[in-house]
Design a protein that fits this description.
Mean pLDDT: 96
Bound molecules: glutamine
Number of strands: 10
CATH architecture of the largest domain: 3-Layer(aba) Sandwich
Catalytic activity: L-glutamine + H2O = L-glutamate + NH4(+)
CATH topology of the largest domain: Beta-lactamase
Strand content: 5-15%
Protein name: Glutaminase
Structural class: alpha+beta
Helix content: 40-55%
Order of helices and strands: HEHEEEHHHHHEHHHEHHHHEEEEH
CATH superfamily of the largest domain: DD-peptidase/beta-lactamase superfamily
Family: Belongs to the glutaminase family.
EC number: 3.5.1.2
Largest sheet: 5 strands, antiparallel
Distance between the termini: 10 Å
Organism: Idiomarina loihiensis (strain ATCC BAA-735 / DSM 15497 / L2-TR)
Amino acid sequence: QQIHAPDDLKSLLEEIHQQAMKITEGHVADYIPALAEVDPELCGLTLATLDGEVFNVGDTQEQFSIQSISKIFGLMLAMERLGEDLWDRVKMEPSGQAFNSIVQLEWEKGIPRNPMINAGAIVVSDVLVSRYSASKNAVLSLVRTLCGNDNVYADNIVHQSEKEHGHRNAALAHLMKSFGNIDAEVDELLDHYFWQCALTMSCENLARSFTFLANDGICPFSKKKIMSKRDSQRINALLSTSGMYDQSGEFAFTVGVPAKSGVGGGMIAVVPDFGVICSWSPRLNSYGNSARGMYMVRELANRLGLSVY
Ligand code: GLN
C-alpha cells in the first residue's frame, strides 16, 4: 500500500491539533487522585515515520501515565518467554465488554478473552513475575531500548495509589487464581501490573517505541530486530480487534489501523509501512479512550487515507 503523504505533514498535524483543542467532551480518569489532577487541556500529537522523521505538535514532551498502553510491553515479553503456550492461558478474541469487566471470566473459566483487557494483562503479569527474576527490570529495559531513552520510570505515586484502589483488578486476579490460571502470589503479580500501568512516557517516546510494529518487527531508528515479522503481525492483529476495548469495532470502522489506548489519555496507532501516531489528551469518552485523541487519530487517518482495510 502506497501512502501519498502531503508535502507538509507538520501543518496537517497542526491543523488537526488546533481543531481538537476545541473538543471539551469527556472526563479525566478519576479512580485515583494522581490521574484526576492532570490538566485536562493538555494535548499532544506525534507522528513518527519509518524514514526516521518525527513530527511533534502540542504537549508531546510531557510525561504522562501510559496505563494500558503498557499492556503491549508486557505481552511482548510474555510471548517471548512462553511461546505458543501463552495462548492456552489467554485468548485472542475481542471482548465486547469494558476493559475491567469481570463477567466473562466466570463463564469462560478464568481464561481472559484477550491480553488487552485488564484480566488478560494480569495473566501476562503472572507470566512475567513467574518467569523473570526481576520482571520490572525486564520491562524497563525493553521500554528504554524501544524508545532509545534511559529516562523512563514508573511514577511511584500512581503505582501506590493504583494498589490502594485496585480492588476490581484484585478481584479479577483472585477469580482467575481460583480457576488455576494464576501461578504467582496475587499480591506480587498485582504489584507488577500496577507498576507497569504507572510507567510515564511522552508522546514522542511512545511513538518512537512502537515504530517496529509498523516495520515488520524492525526498529527504523536503531535498525534493531525487536521481534519476528510474524509476532509483530500478531500483536497488530490483537490491537486491531481489542486495543480500543469495546470501541475496537467502531475504531476499525472509522479509522482502520491497529491501536492501543490507556486511561491516562494516551493512544498509539500503528500504520503498517508508514509509521506510528501517538496522541495524548486526558479527557476520556465513555469507553475510556481519549476524546481528543480519537478525533486527532481519526482525522489524520482519514485525511491521509491510512486505513489498512
Ligand atoms: N490502571 C488501569 C486499571 O487497571 C489501567 C486500565 C486502562 O488504562 N484502561 O484499571
